[in-house]
Design brief:
The chain is α+β, with helices and mostly antiparallel strands. The protein has one domain (3-127). It has helices at residues 3-6, 8-16, 21-31, 33-43, 80-88, 96-107, 120-127; strands at residues 47-53, 58-63, 68-72, 76-77, 111-116. Helix 2 (8-16) runs parallel beside helix 6 (96-107), helix 3 packs across helix 4 (33-43) and helix 4 (33-43) packs across helix 6 (96-107). The protein starts with a helix and ends in an 8-residue tail after the last helix.
């Protein structure tokens, strides 16, 4: 089970669709600046849920600084911070994109996009593109 799924604050937020002051303080102390960046991204509409039919597949993305990042469940994000600081260095339990997805889902702040299965590969290829470098 992921640390996010086990977080009692998130369980409570999902049940009530409301963030209490106690939840804010607890999550802020647990996740620090990542929590605030995540909640800001959720509120600003950076989270999208693609629902494909007829397969029923779902793909979540979070628009970040450089590009849109693929987020799988509450376990994986395609950003460099996730790879370096969550997986390799084990400094943090998650990146802010994962927090944004979880908060947006709990508060129903995401954009829902219905699509046909024929567009699935196009979306996935687009998410694998390399960010543009500024020279």
């Amino acid at each position: 089970m992921s640390a996010l799924r086990a977080d009692l604050n998130l369980v409570q937020i999902k049940q009530t669709r409301y963030i209490s002051g106690k939840n804010l303080l607890s999550m802020s102390s647990k996740y620090g600046e990542r929590f605030w960046k995540g909640i800001r991204a959720a509120i600003e509409g950076c989270v999208k849920k693609y629902a494909f039919s007829p397969s029923g597949r779902e793909v979540w993305t979070v628009h970040g600084k450089k590009m849109d990042y693929l987020v799988i469940d509450d376990l994986y994000c395609g950003c460099d911070d996730f790879y370096l600081n969550v997986v390799i260095r084990r400094k943090f339990p998650c990146c802010y994109h994962l927090l944004a997805k979880v908060m947006a889902e709990a508060l129903e702040l995401y954009e829902s996009i219905a699509s046909n299965d024929s567009t699935y590969l196009t979306l996935m290829r687009g998410l694998r593109r390399m960010p543009k470098k500024d020279f």
